[in-house]
Each structure stands twice: as C-alpha cells, then as structure tokens.
Amino acid sequence: MSKVRFITLLVFFPLCGIFAQEKTLLKEDAVIKALENNFGIEIAKGQVEIAENNTSILNSGYLPTLTGTAAATYNNNNTTTEFPGQFNDDGTERDDISIDGAESQRYSSALNLNYTLFDGMGRFYNYKRLKEQYQLSTLQARETIENTMIQMFTVYFEIARLTENKNVQKQALEISRDRITRSEYSFEYGQNTRLDILNAQVDMTNDSINLLNTEQQLANAKRDLNVVLNQDLATQYQVDTTIVFIPKFQIVEFMDEAIKNNVAVLQTETNLNINAYDIKVNKSGYLPTIGLTGSYGWNRNQNAPSAFLTGAVFPGTNSNVGNYSLGASLTWNLFDGGSTTVSVKNAKITYANQELLRKQVELEVNRDMQNAMALYENLLKIYQIQEQNVFTNQNNFERSKEQFQLGSITSIEFRQAQINLLNAQTNKNLAKYDAKLAELQLLQLTGQLLNIEL
To answer: The pTM is what?
Structure first.
C-alpha cells in the first residue's frame, strides 16, 4: 500500500499545486498576444512602415532641391616690390617696398535651387510603383500574420490535445489504483492470488509513466507557445479545449471567392502592376528632361595691402551682395547606345513572365483548396467515427467493470477494455484538433483566416 500511495502522490500532488494557480488562455487572447508581441509580425510591421515612408512626397522626386554653400579663405603673405630703373622726382633711385604680414580674406556664400519640371513622366510612374510596393508590403505582412496564426494554433491545439489526454490518463491511473486496492482486499479474503496484485501494480506503474510523459510533452508545448507569443517561458496557463466547426456552406462560399482574397494571388497581381509601371518608367528615357535653376550669392574680398606706382600702400575691399540668377535647361538623350530600348524590352518580358506566374499561382491555389477541402471532410468523418468509437468503448468498459467486480472476467480482460477506451479517447482528441487545424489551413487558402470568429 505504501508504494501505491507514493506513486499516486508523486503524480497528483505537484499537479494540483500547479493547476490551482493557472489561468485559462482563450484563443482570442492568444491571437491578440501574437499580433502584439510576435517577433516575426513585428519585423513585418517594420517593413510595412519602410514601404509607407517610401510613398511619401519627400521620396517622390516632385519637390525641388535647395543646396547652400559657404567658403572662407585667409592668406598671410610677405611681399617685396622692386622698381629697377625708376627714380624719384629728386633724381634718386626709387627704393624697394617691403610689406610683411599682409593679410587678405575672401568670403562667399550661395543658395542653389534646382527643380525638374518634366522628366518624361518617369517620376510619376515611379511614384505609382512605390504605392504598389507599399501594397505588396502589406500583403507580405498579412502572409506573415497568417502563417504565424497557423503556427500559433498548431501549438495551441497540441496543448489542448495533451491537456485532454492528461485528464484521460489521470482517470486511467485512478482506475488502476482502485484495481490495486480491490485486488488486495480480494487477496486478503482468498478470492484471488498475489499475481492479480502484481498485474495491477504493473498497470499502475505504466499509467503513471504515461501520465508523466504527457505532462512533460505538455510543458514543452507550452514553452513553444510562449515563444510564439513572446512571453516568459515559465508562464503557466490552461487552454480552451472547446472546438466549434464552421458550417460547410460558409466554407464553400469562401472558396468561391478565394481567387479574389488569397494572399498569394493578390501578391502576384500586385507584382504585375509593379512590372507594368517598370515598363513606363523605362520608356521615360525616350523623352527629354526640362528643369529650372536658380541661385543667390554673396561675396566679399578683403585684399592685402599692395604697392602702386604712385608709391602708396593701402588695402582694398570688394563686396558683391545680392547676386542672383535664374535659368532653364532642356536635356534630351537622343541616343544612349540602345540601353533604354533594352531596358524596355526586358521590362516587357518580365511583365509577361509575371502574367504566367499569376496563372500558375491561381491554378496551384485551386488545387491546394480542393486537396485541403477533401482532407478537412475526411478528418471530420474520422472525428465523428472516433466519437462513436468512444461511446462504444465506454459502454464496453462499464460492462467489463461490472463483470470484473462480479468476478466474471479476469483482470487482464478488464485491463484490455480499459486500454481500448483510453486509445479511443486519445484518438478522438487527435482527430478533433487535426480536423480544426485542417479547417484553419483551408480558411487561409480562401483568404478568410483573419476574418472569422474563433
């Protein structure tokens, strides 16, 4: 008896302390946490922000450019001026003039304005292209979110399945414990042998090990979900094991509109629009560019002292304030060696390839939907069969239990009925969550994964 009680306390006592403190993490709450905290989704949001910044008027090329320049120069020179063969008024030879430390400064500043009036419509189509690029980034972010939701629900349903399996195995362990007690009483009254006690103890040990393994798998699955939700790995919780399936007619309606909503198809269409703008951007190279220029400048020169023929030595200052100029320019690359022609041809080929890719993606999406629908319907049927199988095995177990208590069947036969019920229950749990996950994957293909209530 002491060994049996030790195994029971070993399995049940730690679990009671854990689950008494756990809260239920609803599916809706898990979705919110994933959207707010998941690393992959946060990175995708950052990419969308970059694409949005690129669509700003500041990145369109429609605004002028204004540059400012300023310069200052300082000189310090020693100079000697000679007057060979020159004489003063009194007939004496003219002396040399030396200037030491002659300083001069030059200052200048300017503002230059450039504005492109026309560039062959290149910037217009490039701006349109950036808008489509932003749309593509949002679709890529949506794809990341959808994939993260599937990943999150895969782990969430695994936790739910293991939770239900754990409860089933706890019941099996309790039944085995009762068997040991009954076998010991029967042995004391001489109704069976010690072999029945040993068989019951072996079965209880196996049930205890199975429960401990399930608990370990459950703990690992919770840590996996904590990673997806970007929360503390030690966070403990229970999950909602309730499953509600979407009516089939609604799924069929979603499938009829899948080509308009599937994220992969929408990405190929957006890439097609981008390629169309690439053709027009490259064609702009055939047209001229017209621009305006303007400048405003200021200059000041502080000259060093110098000697003149009169013999006077003095510095000079020259200032120009408020100089401005306006201009217009036309640039037309009449022949660029054929590079523009080649770029246009390549852009058209890329557009044609993108059209083929779109048709291929649409065909693959339709195939994947048909396969996913067939798999979903098959798993639903399996789930329904497993539910009936649990009902049948439950009745068989109850009858076997009555017969075992009356001594009409052996403990081995009773154990077999218990194992059959345990297998039926775990298989039903597996079928239920497999069917729901298949439904979510089908909804992802139809583009409705983020639009349905859980």
So the answer is: 0.83
